[in-house]
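Board notes (copied after class):
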Amino acid sequence: MRILALAIFLLAVSAGQSSFAQEISSAHPPVDERPLTLAEAIERGLQNNLDVAITRYDPLVAGFDFTAAWGAHEPTFAADWTYGTSETASSSGFLTFGSGSNILFNRTKQGGAGVVGMLPRLGWRYDISYRGTSTESSAAFLNNLNPEYEAQFTANATVPLLKGFLWGPEWVNVRVSDLGRGIAHQAFRQQLMDTVQRIASGYWNLAARQQDLRVAQQSLKTASALLDQTKAQYEVGVVSRVEVVESQAGIADREFRLIQAENAFRSAQDRLADQVFGVELRPESRFGIVPTDSPSNYRSFEVDERVVAEKAFELRPELAQARHTVEQQEIQVKFARNQRLPQVDLVGSYGFQDLAGRDPNNAFNFGRRFTDADDSFFGGGNHPQWSGGVQISIPIGNTTARSNHDKSEALLRQTKARALRTEQAVVLEVRDSIRNLRSAIRGIDAAERRVEAASEQLRAEQIRLEHGESTPFAVLQREEDRSEAESQRTIALQTYHDSVAALERAQGTILRDRGIVVEDALTLR
């Protein structure tokens, strides 16, 4: 009788495998399984992840801001040209003498061109321009030249001595935006590190849910085989109807757990697919990632807290961003301090002016064409003009500038406090990651020993049942203990891999350790 029961049990296990596979395939639509290693998942994730795609634009935008800030120092070209006429009725014969009319007529043409700009850092402003004017009048006898041509070349400069010297708003904007580029680059690097850690965490979570699904499948197979064995024993009068009901209750419980495990596995697939494939995941998608790296592959190693902390303070992008932000605010403090000073500027002008035109009386030796007025600039016959002076502006009270300076000082102290808070958060993260890794390594060893013990207890209880010394309920209890032990081992392995990724993230080496180059990932897709 015992031999018959054992044979029925073995046949039930074999039959349970095929029936269970049919149940699973009918309960869930077929999917396109995509096996991936962790390295492949990370590589595709950095290409398709939407969070990375969004942050990838920040360094580009910051670069445009920096270029735009430099553009404030570029020279600006300006030009104008005006044509005008005027007719004035006059009762004075003197003004209209010789014209045969009482209408006084004037025609003017004038234009100019030049460049205006500023020297970087120094804040010196310059204005270089050329202007020409042509005037023609019907009162010809009033003008020795008619038409008269005037040409003028002028260079002006304004040199700040106090307010604006070395700390003009345009140059401050260049320096601040330059640091902004560094902040954006570090923010993108931070996003890459966070994304890699999330993909790694999602990958090992999927591997854990896959293992949970296998455990749930095996548990249901064992319970199904036990039910078949109990029914056979009941039919020959070895056990009572109560034991059959106990076995049926065990199957129902394990079917429920299998449903939960299957749902958790599919959800984990979707979460990882969102990180890895981005917009390829749609409501109608029928693909699923299958992890090929085994979580059982791990190694035990020691971690030096001092070395980890040194790497973190050197490589963490959050700390680099905090340092850049402090530098930005220090520049704002220096700018605000400079703005409290009086405005004292040196101003100067130097240029040439000359005339040309038609002289009916030949009383003066002038050229007759407009270009003759320009030729004198270079022929030694020019007429230089220059001026120099000082402009002073002192605000009474200077309340706004002093308040802005006090505000910038307060913001600097706040920014430094935030940087210290960031450093302290990094210290805490380093300590947690080291402690979690050490705990995970010890947890794996303990979980392995529990699985061995639970498996041995289940085997012993099954033998006792074969000899009539146990009940199906006791076997189900032992099988449940083994399932819990295997789940505990799965959790321990998942915690280990998560802790390794968290340690790499905490010390800032997660990209370097996985061969990821930030500049390559920064290229727009």
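Comment from the instructor: The longest strand covers residues 103-118. The chain is about 60% helix and 15% strand.
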